[in-house]
């Protein structure tokens, strides 16, 4: 029994919105990273759902790429986080605004 | 393509001094004579090569070759020819071969003389001095055998730059830098017109070559024959205009009225430099240019009349100022201006041979006089005021006799070289003047100038060498070495015998063929097509008259000028050849003040500069500062202001950016949706 594709889209929308909500409200950089991961995965769900719906593998392949990309992004993001912490003794994103202009 | 035989080495004539310039500049400090040796060797090499060339040209060969083409293009010029080329090339014909010898000889002797004048006096900055001399000689030699107007212009400018560097050699004094700047600016004012002339000629005829089928002279001739209209003018009028524009540069460099004011001030440079400037390089460049493109001037009677009138006027004008000067170098400076006036007069009346002849003789005797004055200055422990000299005759006999030979040549006393050439100039002016009233006036002025020349020359000789010593240094002169004496002797001999190359009056009277220079310039040994005295003479449209027969006219003219020169010399003799001469010029009253102030030429030029040029420059500056800069500044102010407002969008808070991003995305969606009609 296959689940209708609109439920997947709804799930992915919910996930994306949670991620977006996190980015817009949180101040902790670590939570930022997690929220970004949520949004990426929302996109992944979409890709796979539509691949299943259309009956080809293109979307799945793209989902694999996105995961690899997400891993890389997390690596860099954590690196930035470490440096941020070392310089400001904090991971609050409102603190480094002194670096703007 | 390089030439064969002597011509293959022709570029080296100019390049030797250039090498000496580089060597003196880079290694001068470490060399035993501070670069003098390099300069002497280089100029000696140039001189020997020039002599070889002279012999080759005498053997009937000439050389006209393009060595390097640096720009060419297609353009439809006014006279209707297509394409234009800018090249470096050499033109070695009798005229340039002769001038090469003169320039390299004088430069060589000046280098040798410098050993005694600069090195022996322990000057500082000698490498700079010898480098300057080298570059000066290089530019002049390259100018002399340039085969086109643009190349000539470039080296003309380089000559001006070198004179600036050398006049300002003693840059720690107050007067030398100012004199150098004045020389540079005044000649540059003339050169501005020269540049306009070059551009005008190039854009009219599509060629700047001096000689050959493609020369601008030939093109101008054709245009006049075909009755073409160039830039809205009759062809002949346009040739006159361009010729006069080029003449602007000539008048600046050859110190003709009213651009002569820089030359007396240029005496601030070392005397050796003055000798080089006056005899062979800078000042000679102007007159040489007229001779070089004489075919072009010959096409325009108006331009020729202007040349002769300016020449005649300058000859008299400068001679009168020379009468009251106390500084030995100042007297010589004014005599130079006056003598170049004669050359211009000679060329202006179509006396190509006479002008070149006087240029040659003047190079020898003026170099002699300046080096003699340099010797006197050394003898007098750097005193230049003639009233502090006197009685040097017995103490420095070699200097005295060579200086006397130069003075006799300058004054135009028979049989010294100056007499023959000056007489020829005056004779040519007279025969044309008999038909042309304007030129007769120019002739009359030049004739009166002969008297003044004789007077100031011998006033100088008597005050310097005769009478009783009038100061302690004059009683106890400083000895001079061989390096000073040797050039004086060489030039002294030349000042006496150089006239032998063209004894026109004797040839006329005796009926023997001894006008060698005329034959030489007439291309009887070899010449480039169209660049001969005969070709020029046919083009010049002046009628020639005579008083009685030609011989009578000639004897009359010669007698008149010789009589006036002797009268001038005798006046100087009675007034100043006494044991204790007094300042007779006090008796001149108001005239003396005018003469000593040089006819207020500097004053009115400064007045023009201050009252006219300066306000115009100020206005231009104000326009630049307010309108142009204002425009630029307002543009930058607007963007600066906008930027400072807009940068506030960047809060540095990632959350804000994300919010803006989302808001923007939603806005875009709404917009697309509205336009796409999703909500209906």
UniProtKB/TrEMBL annotation, chain A:
Keywords: Membrane, Transmembrane, Transmembrane helix, Transport. The chain crosses the membrane at residues 6-24, 31-55, 61-85. One of its GO terms (cellular component) is NADH dehydrogenase complex. Its main location: membrane. It is found in: Membrane. It comes from the Archaea. GO terms for biological process: ATP synthesis coupled electron transport. InterPro entries: NADH_UbQ_OxRdtase_chain4L/K, NUOK/Mnh_C1-like. One of its GO terms (molecular function) is oxidoreductase activity, acting on NAD(P)H. It is a multi-pass membrane protein. Belongs to the complex I subunit 4L family. This is NAD(P)H-quinone oxidoreductase subunit 4L. The lineage of its organism: Archaea, Methanobacteriati, Methanobacteriota, Stenosarchaea group, Halobacteria.
Automatic annotation (TrEMBL), chain B:
It is found in: Membrane. It is a multi-pass membrane protein. It holds the Pfam family Proton_antipo_N. Residues 82-130 form the NADH-Ubiquinone oxidoreductase (complex I) chain 5 N-terminal domain. GO terms for cellular component: membrane. The keyword Membrane applies. InterPro entries: NADHpl_OxRdtase_5_subgr, ND/Mrp_TM, NU5C-like, Proton_antipo_N. The chain crosses the membrane at residues 6-28, 35-55, 95-117, 129-146, 152-171, 192-212, 235-252, 273-291, 303-324, 331-357, 363-380, 400-420, 440-465, 486-507, 554-578, 654-679. Residues 146-440 form the NADH:quinone oxidoreductase/Mrp antiporter transmembrane domain. GO terms for biological process: ATP synthesis coupled electron transport; electron transport coupled proton transport. This is Proton-translocating NADH-quinone oxidoreductase subunit L. One of its GO terms (molecular function) is NADH dehydrogenase (ubiquinone) activity. It comes from the Archaea. Keywords: Membrane, Transmembrane, Transmembrane helix. The keyword Nucleotidyltransferase does not apply. Its main location: membrane.
């Amino acid at each position: 029994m296959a689940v209708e594709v609109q439920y997947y889209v709804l799930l992915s929308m919910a996930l994306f919105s949670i991620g977006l909500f996190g980015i817009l409200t949180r101040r902790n950089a670590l939570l930022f990273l997690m929220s970004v991961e949520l949004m990426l995965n929302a996109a992944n769900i979409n890709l796979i759902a539509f691949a299943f719906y259309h009956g080809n593998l293109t979307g799945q392949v793209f989902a694999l790429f996105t995961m690899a990309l997400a891993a890389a992004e997390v690596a860099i993001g954590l690196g930035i986080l470490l440096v941020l912490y070392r310089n400001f003794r904090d991971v609050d994103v409102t603190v480094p605004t002194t670096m703007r202009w | 393509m390089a030439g064969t035989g002597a011509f293959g080495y022709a570029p080296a004539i100019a390049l030797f001094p250039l090498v000496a310039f580089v060597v003196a500049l880079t290694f001068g400090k470490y060399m035993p004579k501070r670069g003098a040796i390099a300069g002497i060797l280089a100029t000696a090499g140039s001189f020997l090569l020039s002599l070889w060339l002279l012999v080759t040209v005498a053997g009937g060969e000439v050389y006209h070759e393009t060595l390097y083409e640096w720009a060419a293009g297609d353009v439809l010029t006014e006279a209707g020819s297509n394409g234009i080329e800018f090249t470096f090339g050499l033109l070695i014909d009798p005229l340039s071969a002769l001038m090469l010898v003169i320039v390299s000889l004088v430069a060589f002797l000046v280098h040798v003389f410098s050993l005694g004048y600069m090195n022996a006096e322990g000057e500082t900055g000698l490498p700079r001095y010898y480098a300057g001399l080298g570059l000066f000689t290089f530019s002049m030699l390259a100018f002399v055998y340039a085969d086109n107007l643009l190349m000539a212009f470039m080296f003309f400018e380089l000559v001006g730059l070198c004179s600036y560097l050398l006049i300002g050699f003693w840059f720690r004094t107050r007067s030398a830098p100012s004199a150098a700047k004045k020389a540079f600016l005044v000649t540059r004012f003339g050169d501005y017109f020269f540049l306009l002339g070059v551009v005008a000629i190039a854009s009219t005829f599509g060629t700047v070559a001096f000689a050959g089928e493609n020369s601008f002279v030939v093109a101008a001739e054709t245009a006049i024959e075909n009755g073409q209209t160039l830039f809205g003018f009759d062809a002949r009028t346009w040739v006159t205009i361009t010729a006069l524009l080029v003449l602007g540069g000539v008048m600046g460099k050859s110190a003709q009225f009213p651009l002569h004011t820089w030359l007396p001030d240029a005496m601030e440079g070392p005397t050796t430099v003055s000798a080089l400037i006056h005899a062979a390089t800078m000042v000679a460049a102007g007159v040489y240019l007229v001779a070089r493109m004489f075919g072009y001037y010959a096409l325009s009677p108006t331009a020729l009349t202007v040349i002769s009138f300016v020449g005649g006027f300058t000859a008299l004008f400068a001679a009168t100022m020379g009468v009251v000067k106390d500084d030995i170098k100042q007297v010589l400076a004014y005599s130079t201006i006056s003598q170049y006036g004669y050359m211009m007069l000679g060329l202006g009346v179509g006396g190509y041979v006479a002008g070149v002849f006087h240029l040659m003789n003047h190079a020898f005797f003026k170099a002699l006089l300046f080096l003699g004055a340099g010797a006197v200055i050394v003898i007098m422990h750097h005193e230049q005021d003639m009233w502090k000299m006197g009685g040097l005759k017995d103490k420095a006999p070699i200097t005295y006799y060579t200086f006397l030979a130069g003075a006799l040549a300058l004054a135009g006393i028979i049989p010294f070289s100056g007499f023959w050439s000056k007489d020829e100039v005056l004779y040519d002016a007279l025969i044309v003047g008999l038909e042309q009233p304007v030129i007769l006036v120019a002739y009359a002025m030049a004739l009166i100038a002969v008297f003044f020349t004789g007077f100031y020359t011998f006033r100088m000789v008597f005050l310097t060498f005769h009478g009783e010593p009038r100061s302690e240094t004059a009683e106890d002169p400083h000895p001079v070495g061989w390096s000073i004496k040797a050039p004086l002797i060489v030039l002294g001999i030349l000042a006496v015998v150089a006239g032998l190359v063209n004894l026109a009056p004797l040839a006329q009277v005796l009926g023997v063929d001894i006008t060698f220079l005329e034959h030489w310039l007439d291309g009887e040994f070899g010449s480039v097509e169209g660049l001969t005295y005969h070709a020029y003479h046919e083009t010049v449209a002046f009628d020639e008259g005579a008083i009685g027969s030609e011989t009578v006219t000639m004897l009359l003219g010669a007698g008149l000028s010789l009589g006036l020169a002797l009268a001038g010399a005798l006046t100087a003799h009675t007034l100043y050849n006494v044991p204790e001469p007094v300042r007779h010029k006090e008796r001149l009253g108001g005239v003396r003040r005018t003469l000593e102030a040089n006819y207020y030429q500097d004053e009115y030029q400064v007045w023009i500069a201050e009252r006219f040029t300066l306000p115009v420059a100020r206005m231009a500056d104000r326009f630049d500062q307010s309108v142009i800069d204002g425009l630029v500044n307002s543009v930058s102010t607007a963007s600066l202001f906008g930027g400072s407002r807009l940068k506030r969008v960047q809060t540095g808070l990632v959350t804000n950016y994300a919010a803006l991003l989302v808001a923007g995305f939603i806005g875009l969606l709404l917009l697309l949706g509205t336009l796409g009609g999703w909500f209906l």
